Amino acid sequence: MTRSRAAFAAILILVAAAAILLAMGRNPMCTCGTIDLWVGERDSARTSQMLADWYSLSHIVHGLLFYAALWLVARRLLPEWRFLIALIIESAWEVTENTPFIIDRYRETTAALGYTGDSVINSLSDILMMAAGFLIARKLPIWASVALLIVLEVVPLFVIRDNLTLNVWNLLASNPAVAAWQARH
Known about the structure:
The structure is a single chain. Helix content is about 65%, strand content about 0%. It is built from eight helices and two strands. It has helices at about 5-25, 55-75, 80-95, 100-110, 120-140, 140-160, 165-170, 175-185; strands spanning about 40, 50-55. The protein has a two-stranded parallel ribbon with strand order 1-2.
């Protein structure tokens, strides 16, 4: 597969994800009427509505992890195919994450107290963050990818008391002690 065909396929995946999210009734952008580059508060109504927030870092981690996993299990596939597989997985997650079941689960078990789901622009940005993480992992030596992953997990842990690890842990098996610690933010 050529890079131009992979790029075209990637654009089609993004368009499909946006179309599905819009068909699900997701807001294209924040209902506040603005598009900001960054929202720094964990519990703001604008979190998950703008281009980037603390949770965007977890999507970069997705990309690092998808690159590693696909390199391990699908090493013989061309990098472009592995990238498209990662993009499909991330897009599927963004659609799933914005279903009422997952939104309610986030509200019940994670630090996302007032979470109402992502705007379409935020979901697309999250998918692109994963793509950036994947492409970064492709270029960096393994030790640097691991170091980046650790930084992207540790910094939000201390700044907002949340990260990808805690999100997954709480979604799968919520822990009252972790929830109490996160609530002290």
